[in-house]
Every structure is written in structure tokens, then in C-alpha cells.
Amino acid sequence: MTSTDAPTASGVPSGPSAPAAPPAPAASPSSAVPSSPPAGPPAAGDTGAAGGTPGTAPGTGGTAAPEVVPAELHGPVLAWFDRHARDLPWRRPEAGAWGVMVSEFMLQQTPVVRVLPVYEQWLARWPRPADLAAEAPGEAVRAWGRLGYPRRALRLHAAAVAITERHGGDVPSDHAQLLALPGIGEYTAAAVASFAYGQRHPVLDTNVRRVFARAATGVQYPPNATTAAERRLARALLPEDEPTAARWAAASMELGALVCTAKNEDCGRCPIAARCVWRLAGKPAHDGPPRRGQTYAGTDRQVRGRLLAVLRESREPVAQAALDRVWDEPVQRARALDGLVADGLVEPLDDGRYRLPLS
């Protein structure tokens, strides 16, 4: 992970550079993927990634959509990535698996430009999981700064402790072991296994899901939550060999970050525009549930951020009066503070003061 430089479920992380991908194999009829891949009867509530009948293009009244041949996508996207991939520190070989994991946590719903300085400072201070594990979790929250969603800092600290205790301080390469770490979900486990270890896993962040929704299923946006149909499609589109599959995961993510963006897709720069089902269908407008917008001003999130800023800036416990000054509305302020305590981001002391967590 896990970006356009627009906040996403994971942003635009990618792994260290891999060897150049071999030429894509010649397409065969058996390698074609229908625009919404069939996989038996859908589960309740699962209408496929396109939200319609598998094998039909949205808005076409049941007309069969063009078949997507994975090999016809791989070559152009990988060649585009070779020319246009950004030089990001977590993509460099020296980043290692720990650097990739840190980036994946930080890039969730956070743009690259905000992550870069914090990432560099984090790795300089804690170059290995054991270095972070030796510190109090509150120090991870302090170093997280203004990245937002600070529970990610606690989860990354917990993962570092588990890596130190269970795996001798080395980020495991086994996908199941990654998934068993605290704070690691389906996306992050696949991303670390792919980007750090060159393995073959579908890596589905918001950018990838959007590229696949448009190019392969003919809809403008993916569903709000990842569906089983999207997972099947992602697996069907994976190149067969591991190094190419890992490179494909990074390349499709970068394509969604830089070209096939949420609001301003640039089809003139897209290497697969001529094969994009959504473009060929005339770019039908999104007709699913309304896209969820993110607000910040005046929300509990803003209040939490201001409270945490006071605590981060102090090496000593903070009195209630100092926290009261950051937000005028007492009910919302109390609710936000109670939430921080419940989330383990703040520890209340017996004397009425507060601090970042020590354990």
C-alpha cells in the first residue's frame, strides 16, 4: 500500500522495483475474462463488481460486453509503469519488507505527499520492527504526527511487537503469517507479500478497484465495499508467474493513482484506453449508491486531532484544562476524548491528567 495522492482506502503504495516483466503471453480464448467474471450463482446481495449481470455491459440492455483478455492488459500497463512509476522510497530495494509495511500502514486514506516526511523520519528512528517494539506505543502515536487515523500507529506498533516476538524481528514472508499479525488485514497482507517479497496475490486498494471496475466491468466506480466478484476478477487478471504478478499489482495501482483517477481520468494517457470497457461503452455515469464523501471540519475527527496534538507536544501528562482550550463545545469535546481513551490512544491518570499510552 494502500494512491493518487487523493485519500484512498490505501493510497498508492507499491513495492520495491522488480525485474522488467517478460513479454505478455499470447492471448488464447481460454484466457479471456468476461467483463464481470462468472463464478456460479451470486451470494445474497452480491451482484458482481459491476452491480449487474455477469457478461453484460451496464446500460446496454443485456448486450454482451467485450471480453477482457488479461494478457492484452498486462503488457501495456507494465510497459507504462516502467516509464512512469514514481521513485518512492518504499519502492527501493533498501526499503526492505519493514519499509514496505510501514508505507502500507501510512498510506491508508492518506496522500503520498503527506506520508513522505513522516515515513522518512519513522524509518530513521525505527529502522527495524524491534526498534519500534522497544518503545512505548504512545511514542508511535507521537511520531505519527498529523497523518490522521492515529489508531494505525497503535496497530503498527502492535505488529512490530508481534514480529519481534514471533518472527525474530523479521517481517514474515508467508501470507498467512502476515495475515495473523495484529492490525494486518486482507489488503495489507497481500500488499506486503507482493511488494516486499514478489509473490502472486491480488492487491485490491481503491485505485486498483477503480481501474478494474472501468477497464474490465464497464462501470465508473467500484462498490463502496470490496465484493467477492471483485476478488474473483482480480485473481483472474493476475499474471501467472510471481514476479510479473507482483509488478502488475504495483502497476495497476499506479495507473489508478496517476491516470485513472476518481474525478479526472485522463484516457489520453491511459495505456489500455482502447481496451477499456467503460470507455468503449461511452463512459456511462455511476448509477450505484452515492459516493461517500469525506468531511473533516467540525467533526469528532477534528476534535480528536486537536486533543492528540496537545498530548503529542507534551512529554508530561496534560491537565484537563489544557485539553478544554482546544474546542469550545464541551459535549463534543468530552465525546472525542472518551473515544480516544476507548481506542487506547490516550491514558487517563488518577489525578485527572492525560498522556499518550505507555503500554
The count of strands amounts to 2
Helix content: 40-55%
Distance between the termini: 27 Å
Counting helices, strands and paired strands, the structural category is mainly alpha
Runs in which pLDDT lies below 50 for 5 or more consecutive residues are: 1-31, 34-64
Sequence of secondary-structure elements:
HHHHHHHHHHHHHHHEE
- Overall shape: globular
**Main β sheet profile:** 2 strands, antiparallel
Mean pLDDT: 85
**How is the largest sheet built, in terms of strand order?**
1-2
The proportion of strand residues reads: under 5%
Count of individual helical segments: 15
Oligomer: single chain
CA gyration radius, whole angstroms: 22 Å
